[in-house]
Specification:
alpha/beta; Rossmann fold; eight-stranded mixed beta sheet; six-stranded parallel beta sheet; 33% helix; 27% strand; binds nicotinamide-adenine-dinucleotide
Length: 370
């Protein structure tokens, strides 16, 4: 399989980008923040089959035209340069290729898609249409994680010995998630792409690759818990891996159905802890507000340094990711964070975890898949 990058012949726009939102559901509330008060963009269209959601979102962009489908938008004659694709995962491939075929640049939500042939078809569409394809990763724009990367890269912790990620999905707390949003997630889970490992977990794998580079071996033990009859959540799950640079990571995914977790968004308790030969650095939370202490702490030589003034509102990572994309389109300031190549590697690592678990936790090279 040739997962070469989409084209690089892109020339930034010499005017604000004309953008459309495709999919106006739960995550739109955060994705739209990159577009607010932004001179790099002019929102010209919103698209969703739901009358209710179009009416609700029209308030944000009174001048934008509203459409029920991508086909309707494409045939309207309205000029569009780029789209923010916020569709349920099962519709990613169809929706993205349709947008690329309309010669629109695409900023796609994660997970890119569910398997490698599908990823290839998306990459082929980007190449054939000579359009930019970004698979957005807002976690790379979360300030405590950016600071963590800065500390790791600075060498202050000494040579990195290893790291672990923790993720606890709690059943109580956080914002309201509409029933049909959950329905899409459960259908996805029934196809073997679980909510925790594949969907939310996509971010954890992205941050691992962002911090330490490509992964050469993955081992996993994917579990399952019935939360209500007919609905299974993919925990307890443990995934471990080794990067090409020799650093190893471990990630535990746990379900705490009855635990209340304070959160403005999803009730997910997350941690990243990197240990070097001299000390460690830990990001204490992200989406939820589990540990109410500074979001980043560094321990070195018997002293702890805590960062009290980072922008640790998870929503800010969406704002900054969106602004980055629009600045790229308007001014060419890159890199994309992430492009299609990196996203395909994330997909490979997730698929390698499933492959490993299926065969009893054997080591799987993500590049050997396909
Ligand atoms: N980055 C993150 O942390 C994060 C968090 C949550 C969700 N997501 C991702 O965002 C995407 C959307 O998730 P969500 O939670 O907003 O889902 P959602 O179900 O709440 O919203 C999807 C919207 O798409 C609309 N839609 C369905 N078919 C359509 C079509 N053919 N054309 C246009 N619109 C259509 C639906 O009516 C709905 O309003 C998913 O890919 C999900 O994985 C990312």
């Amino acid at each position: 399989m040739n997962e070469s990058a989409p084209p690089t012949s892109f020339t930034p726009f010499d005017r604000p980008v004309r953008a459309a939102f495709v999919g106006l559901g739960r995550i739109y509330d955060l994705n739209m923040r990159g577009y607010v008060d932004n001179d790099d963009v002019h929102v010209v269209a919103i698209v969703d089959p739901s009358d209710e959601r179009r009416a609700q979102r029209q308030v944000d962009w009174p001048e934008a035209r509203a459409f029920r489908s991508v086909e309707e938008l494409a045939s309207s004659g309205l000029g569009v340069d780029a789209v923010e694709v916020l569709l349920p995962i099962a519709l990613h491939e169809e929706g993205v290729t349709q947008c690329l075929d309309n010669h629109w640049h695409v900023n796609l939500q994660k997970p890119m898609t569910i398997d490698l042939p599908s990823a290839q078809r998306i990459l082929d569409a980007a190449r054939a249409n000579d359009r930019q394809l970004r698979v957005m990763e807002n976690y790379l724009f979360y300030e405590p994680l950016r600071k963590l990367k800065e500390v790791v890269d600075s060498g202050a912790l000494g040579t990195i010995s290893g790291y672990h990620l923790k993720m606890v999905a709690s059943g109580r707390g956080g914002w309201e998630v509409p029933g049909d949003t959950y329905q899409h997630q459960f259908e996805q889970a029934q196809l073997g792409r679980g909510t925790l490992l594949f969907d939310d977990g996509w971010h954890k794998l992205s941050t691992a690759i962002w911090l330490f580079g490509p992964i050469r071996e993955v081992r996993a033990w994917v579990g399952s818990t019935a939360v209500v009859p007919g609905v299974e959540i993919d925990a307890p799950t443990t995934v471990l891996w080794e990067h090409v640079n020799g650093v190893r990571g471990v990630w535990d995914i746990t379900l705490a159905v009855d635990m209340y977790l304070r959160s403005d968004y999803y009730s997910n308790d997350e941690r990243w802890e990197v240990t070097g030969r001299r000390g460690f650095a830990r990001v204490n939370r992200c989406t939820g507000r589990g540990l109410q202490q500074p979001s980043l702490e560094i321990y070195l030589d018997g002293e702890t340094r805590a960062f009290h003034a980072l922008d640790d509102d998870w929503a800010s990572s969406f704002r900054d990711s969106g602004r980055h994309w629009l600045r790229w389109l308007h001014h060419g300031e890159g890199p994309l964070w992430w492009g299609a190549e990196e996203a395909t590697h994330v997909l490979r690592v997730a698929l390698a975890a499933y492959e490993s678990s299926t065969y009893g936790g054997i080591g799987v090279d993500p590049q050997s898949l396909g």
